[in-house]
Amino acid sequence: MTWLLIPFVVFVGALVPLQAGVNASLRGYLSSPILAAVTNFSVGGLLLAGYALATREGLPAMEQAAKAPWWCWAGGAMGATLVLTGVLTSHRLGAGTFMACVILGQLAASVLLDHFALVGYSLHPVNPMRLFGIGLLAAGVYVVRTN
Asked: What pTM value is reported for the model?
């Protein structure tokens, strides 16, 4: 069953460069990178709120939500940083370079998160092959950017 998730996640991953380009284009029409990012999150927030209402998603008890560690609340800031970075850089770098850099950052951070078993991930120690993979991605950034 897990294998069926892979094509879906690949499809959603393909939306990232499309989203960055769409948001960067919106920046031109709105004359503001911040307003383009705010629009992105407003539309997304409205869609998620509509889905929550349609599925009758209940609100958690405040006591339960208050038990979450501080870092659990940082995801929105991380998403906003990615979206704003895409708005500001994707058209200048190009979709290929932008995504190569994003993927390199994602894999490097993932290896560290696994190695130290942070934010709920299980322990998967760094090994030479994982470091080799990061090196290959770094080389890929160079090739995509200079070719």
From this structure: 0.86
The answer to whether the beta carbons of residues 134 and 111 sit under 8 Å apart is yes
Phi-psi label, residue 107: left if phi above 0, alpha if psi -120 to 50, beta otherwise: alpha
**Alpha carbon distance 119, 113 (integer Å):** 7
In whole angstroms, give the CA distance from residue 111 to residue 103.
12
The per-residue pLDDT for range 75-128, each reduced to its tens digit, is: 999 999 999 999 999 999 999 999 999 999 999 999 999 999 999 999 999 999
CA 78 to chain centroid: 8
Domain positions in the chain: 2-146
Q: Which ranges of the chain would DSSP assign to H, the alpha helix? A: 2-30, 33-54, 62-66, 75-93, 95-115, 128-146
Question: Measured in whole angstroms, how far is the alpha carbon of residue 147 from the centre of its chain?
Answer: 26
